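subagent[fold] <- orchestrator: predict structure for attached chain, return C-alpha cells only, no commentary.
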Amino acid sequence: MIRIKKVAIIGGGVSGLAAAKAFDEKGHRVVGFERSHDFGGVWELSRSYPDVQTQSPKDLYCYTDHPMPDNYPEWPKGPQVHAYLHSYASKHKIERLFRLNTNIKAMNRREDGQPGWRLTIESAGKEWSEDFDFVSICTGQFSEKNIITHPGQDKFLAHGGRAMHSSEYTDPTLCRDKDVVVLGGSKSGTDIAVNAVNNGAKSVRLVYKENVWRVPYYVGGINFKNLLYMRAQEQQFNRWGKSPLQRVITALFKPLVWANFRGLETLLKLQLGLKKHNMVPKAAIEDEVSCSVPIVTPGFFEYLNAGKIKSVIGTFESYLAGKIKLTTGETVPCDLAVLAVGWKLGVPYLPKEYQEKLIEKDGQYRVYRLSVNPDLPDMGFVGFNSSFCTVLSAEMIANWLVRYADGQLTHQPTATEMNDNINMMLNWKRHERPAAKVYGGLCSAPFHFKHFDELLADMGAKKKKRSNPFVEQFRYPEAKAYGMFLASAPQYRAQ
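subagent[fold] -> orchestrator:
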C-alpha cells in the first residue's frame, strides 16, 4: 500500500501545474505555492514583455492531454500561452490546490523526526511554518532576475535615464522617440530591439558579448521542427552513455555528420546574412547547440539590413548622463537601457548545507535524471530539465518524480547508483560536451529523445517509441504520442 503524502509544489508556472496534476491524480494531498497573483510563471502577463512568443511551435509546447487551440498561430504569443495554461489548470481542477500571493521564505528538515521538510511560508504580512512529506521545487530556470549594474548608473538615472531588466519592459510606449540600448543577444534581447523599432524608438542598439548560432522559424523554407527536432538529428551529437559499439559507429560516420552540420551552417549564413552583419559564430554549431540557442525574432535581420537596429559586440563599461560608454570605446546615446541578461538559477530558501550538496563549485547541479539528489531526500525538481519542448519535459519529469517519491519506478535507484550516474553525467558535461554546462548543465536539449527514453524506461512504460520506425526517426516528439507512452506505464493510486 502506498501512503498518501502531503506534498508541497513550489511554483505555479508550466512545471508547477504539471507537478500538481501528477501528484494529485495519484491521490496525494497537494498544496501549491505561487508568489505571484496568478498562474503562468514567465507567461504571467505582468512578467512578459510585449510581443513575447514561444521559441517552440505550439504542438511542441503543450501537455500530452491538452493541445493548444487550433486557432492559435504556429508560435503563440504570450497572452495566448497564459490563457492556455489557465485552461489546463481549469481542465484538471488544479486551481483549488494553489495558494497565490504566497512566498516560501525558508525550508529545513522536519523537527518531528519524520521524513520531509518544514517550510516557512509568508503571505499577506503573516509568516508561519508547515510540514510536508515531500517537496517538489518547480521554479525552473527563470525565477530570479539577474540584476546587474555598471558604474555611473545613479547619475544616468538622475539625469532622466531609465534602466530595467527585460522582464520589466512591459510598456512599449516607454521607447517612443527614445534612444534605446538593449544589452544581451538572447531572444528576449532581439525581441525587445524589434519591438522598440516598431514602437517608434529614435535609435536602437543591440549590445552583446559574442556571436551565437541563431535558428529562424523556417530554415530554407522548412519549419525547423521538421529539421532539428528529430531522433535522427539528435543521434549526430555526442550524447552521454554511449556503448563501445555506438562509439565505433559514431567514429565511422563522423565525416558525414561533419558535412551535415557544415551544410546547415552555410545555409544559415546565407539565409540570415551573418557575414554581412559580422555575426558568424566562432564555435561549430554542433558544439554549441543547447537550450541557449536563440530563435531568430521575425524582423530582426530585416531591421539590421535597414539600419534600424545597430549591433555591437561588447558590453557596457559605464553610464554617463544620457549616454552609455561601451567596452569598444564607443559612447552611444541612451534614454532607455534594457538589460536582457537572463535569470539566476537557484534555490535561495534551501539551507547552505543542502545547497552545497546540490551545487558543485563550478555551478553544476548534482541531480539524477535532472530531478533528484540522493543527499536531499523527500525532494525533487520539476522544470530544471530545460529544453525546446519545455511543457512536455515538465510533464515527463513530473510523472517520473511522483513514482520516484512513491517507490514505484520499475527500478528504484539506490543512492550509490544515483551518485554514479550523476558523476558520469558531470564528467560528460565537463569534458565531452561543454555546451551542456549552460544553465548549470540542466538543459536536456538537443537530447530530448535520449532523456525521455530513460524516464520512460524507469517508469516501466510498455511503449516508448512510435510504431512506425520512419516516423520515430524523422518526426519531432509529439505530445500526443508521449501521452500514450505514459499511459502504458503501470498505474496506481495512493490510499
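orchestrator: received. Logging for downstream: The domain at 6-144+344-487 is CATH 3.50.50.60 (FAD/NAD(P)-binding domain). The two ends are 7 Å apart (CA to CA).
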